[in-house]
TrEMBL record:
Swiss-Prot/TrEMBL GO biological process terms: fatty acid beta-oxidation
Pfam families reported in the protein's UniProt record: ECH_1
Lineage: Eukaryota, Metazoa, Chordata, Craniata, Vertebrata
Family of this protein: Belongs to the enoyl-CoA hydratase/isomerase family.
Protein name per UniProt: Enoyl-CoA delta isomerase 1, mitochondrial
Length: 291
């Protein structure tokens, strides 16, 4: 699925334009962008994101450093999008590892304080930033690996699922999953679709209906993560794994993408049809009650 968006971005200038319109240009441009210096190794830091880029390997590591739990606030999401945009523009950067600088937590998901009691304008901007993060990761031209070195509920799980590969710390105290139902929230359809593309329909159905959070071992079993390693090895394993992925010529990825893009389009059409059917059904019920 991620590959599909990537192919689409490569082949359809229209979508690229659409994505760049959706991109950080509004709120993000107003913020100071961390610069990536063209040298062998460089480091750029915003308040909440630190990016180390090794030019010799073409791999960048994005450290999320927003205490206490890397919750996805508007400010945090904006910094992530700016950093991603910068890396994307640098054609020498081919791989990205995302990890957390916070102990025990990869990301706690959407910042609940940024969603509660805020103006409609703030909520709209916040929600746009969430979608933008998803689009930028899923549509990235880079190979992306999530080094999940702590718990990763809800939006944190979504973030990891937008990556090509997930390595999680093998610590039973950590958990990962889309637990929105437990919070009394319905996960948006694109959260659901991202999970379907990762673990399949049945596992997603169970996970979402019950709002399940999985231990690392359970997550590995259903394919929510791809590999478990000792806590201290998460980042090194991610960079080693990246070498394998980058050894595959990018062109081969593209051929898979066409197939996945087709599936993604079908899925979107089905979702739209199902929404229309629900509206028609609701109207019919309403009319039949009138008579
Ligand atoms: C219409 C919307 C559709 C989309 C819907 C949902 C998507 C989402 O992502 S909603 C967010 C869901 N997130 C969660 O349910 C996670 C809740 N947090 C936790 O489970 C734990 O905090 C976590 C396992 C991440 C870490 O546990 P601990 O290490 O034990 O830390 P604490 O629980 O003590 O938390 C420390 C500190 O962080 C604050 N916190 C935690 N999560 C969030 C969050 N998502 N947003 C904002 N703040 C968060 C927590 O309140 C503590 O604050 P203080 O009490 O001030 O120290």
């Amino acid at each position: 699925m991620k590959m599909a968006l990537r192919a689409c971005l490569r082949t359809k200038p229209g979508l690229t334009a659409l994505l760049s319109q959706l991109s950080c240009s509004g709120h993000a441009a107003a913020r100071r962008a961390p610069a990536l210096v063209a040298q062998r190794s460089s480091s750029s830091t915003s308040q909440k994101i630190k990016v180390d880029f090794d030019q010799s390997s073409g791999v960048a590591v994005m450290h999320m450093q927003s205490p206490p739990v890397n919750s996805l606030s508007l400010e945090f999401l904006t910094d992530v999008c700016i950093a991603l945009e910068k890396l994307e523009m640098d054609k020498s950067c081919r791989g990205l590892v995302v990890t957390s600088s916070q102990p025990k937590v990869f990301s706690a998901g959407l910042d609940i304080l940024d969603m509660y009691g805020k103006s409609p304008e703030h909520c709209a901007e916040f929600w746009k930033a969430v979608q933008e993060m998803w689009l930028k990761f899923y549509g990235s031209n880079m190979i992306t690996i999530a080094a999940v070195n702590g718990s990763s509920p809800a939006g944190g799980c979504l973030l990891s699922m937008t990556c090509d590969y997930r390595i999680m710390a093998d610590n039973p105290r950590y958990s990962i999953g889309l637990n929105e139902t437990k919070l009394g929230i319905v996960a948006p359809f694109w959260f659901k679709d991202t999970m379907v593309n990762t673990v399949g329909h049945r596992a997603t159905e169970m996970a979402l209906q019950l709002g399940l959070l999985y231990s690392p071992a359970e997550a590995l079993k259903i394919g929510l993560v791809d590999q478990l390693v000792h806590e201290d090895q998460v980042l090194t394993t991610a960079t080693e794994t990246m070498t394998k992925w980058l050894a595959i010529p990018g062109i081969l990825n593209i051929s898979y993408t066409c197939h996945f893009f087709h599936l993604w389009c079908c899925n979107l059409v089905c979702t739209i049809c199902s929404c229309v059917c629900q509206v028609i059904a609701a109207k019919k019920i309403h009319l039949s009650q009138d008579f």
